[in-house]
Amino acid sequence: MAQKPTAKHTLVNDPQLAQLLQSYEAGLRAMQEHKYDKARTLLQKVVAGTNRELADRAGVHLNACNQQLEKADTQFKTSEEHFDYAVSLINLGDYVSAREHLETLSKQVPKGDYVFYGLAALDCLTGHPEDSLRNLSHAIELNAALRFQARNDSDFQNLAEDPRFTELLYPDPGSDTPMVSEPEFGELG
């Protein structure tokens, strides 16, 4: 009487299934080691394979990998990198997410002139002129050079006709910035 082949014996006879199992196991190991890119590649092979049960299991793990990778994408090494991400959100029109990131940055970098400048631009783009002027004023207090940048920034076009904006960007000489006088002839040397 012949014995029934065991499941393990059947796998050895099906090289394609054996390869899928190896990829699946390697993908799980990579996940445990937090190597999500590698795990994603291996699990994608399994999902594309012919075994539906294994593909379904791999799909669950693949979703977990993708979530981990997305989370890692929004972890920033520097505040400048985080700011660049917020600006990219503004450029994409995702103003709500951009505001969340800029407000987080304003708490992390309270002296970050560029953060308040970004908030001012966002406020102007979203129709909040009072907030825009307040944030722009704060940015200029932190870095007076931003006054010149704002003069040519199209993000502030909604404020172009506002006299408060003009006063902020073109202050009266001698009001809050000291004038540097030119030396007279004979003072050199």
Give your account of this protein's structure.
The chain is built from ten helices and no strands. It is mostly helical. The chain has two domains: 7-73; 79-169, Alpha Horseshoe (Serine Threonine Protein Phosphatase 5, Tetratricopeptide repeat), CATH 1.25.40.10. Helix 3 packs antiparallel against helix 4 (52-73). It is rod-shaped.
Task: Give a quick precis of the structure.
By secondary structure, the protein is mainly alpha-helical. It is built from ten helices and no strands.
Fraction of residues in H or I helices: 55-70%
Q: Mean of residue pLDDT?
A: 84
- Classified in CATH, the superfamily of the largest domain is Tetratricopeptide repeat domain
Number of helices: 10
Which H/E pattern describes the elements? HHHHHHHHHH
